[in-house]
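Box 3.1 A note on notation
Throughout this textbook, protein chains are presented in two layers. The first layer is the amino acid sequence; the second is a C-alpha cell string describing backbone geometry. Keep the layers aligned when reading.
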Amino acid sequence: MKMKRFFINILLIGFVLSFSTSCSDDDFTKSIYVDPDPLDPTSITYEFDLWLNDNYRTPYNLDFCYKLKDIESDFDYNLTPTSLKQSKRMAYLIKYLWFDVYNKVVSENFLKEHGPRFIHLIGSPAYNPSHGTVLLGTAEGGIKISLYQCNDLDIENIDFMNEYYFQTMHHEFAHILHQKKTYPKEYDSFSKGYYNPTAWQDRTMSEAASLGFVSPYGSSQPREDFVEVIATYIVKSDEQWNYILDLASKPGINMNGVTIDDPLDGQAIIQSKLNIAKQWLSDSWGVDLEALRAEVQERQKHIGELITENGL
C-alpha cells in the first residue's frame, strides 16, 4: 500500500539528570554572568538589547539570546538566525504571555526562582527526515529553552503561535517543575500499556484522544503526557478543549481511516489526568491552573494591542 508521510511537530526534551538531583542546592539568585559583555550604544540593536537587559537579564537572571550561537545549537540541523523584527516580537510576547502571567497569578519571584536561565531563538525549523518530524523546541536540564521556526511567527494567528511557541514554553516549563518535585505516580497508570515512544507520530489526533491523550506526542511516554495535559489546557480555548474531549469520547480513527476498537473511555481518562495535574500544581507549587489558564486566555485576546503599542 502506498502511503504519504507527513511531518509531525514534536517537542524534544533534553534532560540533564545530574541537574534534577542537585537543583535544590543551586542558588538561582546568583548571576549567571561572570563578565557580561557591555551594551554597545552605537549598535543598531542597542535599544532592543537595553530592553532585554531591563526585562530579562536584570529581573530574571536570564540571557535572552536572539543572535544565533553555533555553540548553543544542534549541529545535526541546518539552522538560520531569527530576524530582528521577529525577535523583538517573540521577546515581548514571551514576557506578556508567560512571565507576566506567573507574576500576576502566582508571585513575582516564582519564575525568578524556577524559570530558565537561557532562552535561545532560532529562525528556521529543524527537520529530521529520517523520522518525518520537525523540532518545535528543546529544554536542557531545566536551564535552557530553545524555540525553533521563529521567523514564521504570525501575530495574527493565535492558534499557530500556540502550536509552535507558547504551548511549547508551557510544556517545557512543566518539565522543569516536575524535575524538581515529581508528580504522583498514579498518573502513569491511566494509560499504562498504551504509550508508544517509537511510533507515536503515526497516531492521529482522533486515535490519541480515544486512548486518553491530548495529543499524539503525549502518547509517547508518561512524563510527556503529563506536561502535554498542562500545556494544552493552558493555551486551548474552551471550544478547542471541548473538541479534544469530544474526540476522546468516540472510537479513534487511525491514519489509514480504520476505526480503532479499544475498551478505554478516553474522555474520562483525560479528565482524571487533568484533575491530578491541577492538584499537583496547587499542592506542590501553589499554582492555580484555572487562574493561570484564565489569565493566558484573556491576554491572548490583546496580542494585537501589545504589538501596536510597542511598535512591533
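Confidence is low (pLDDT under 50) at residues 1-28. The longest helix spans residues 158-180.
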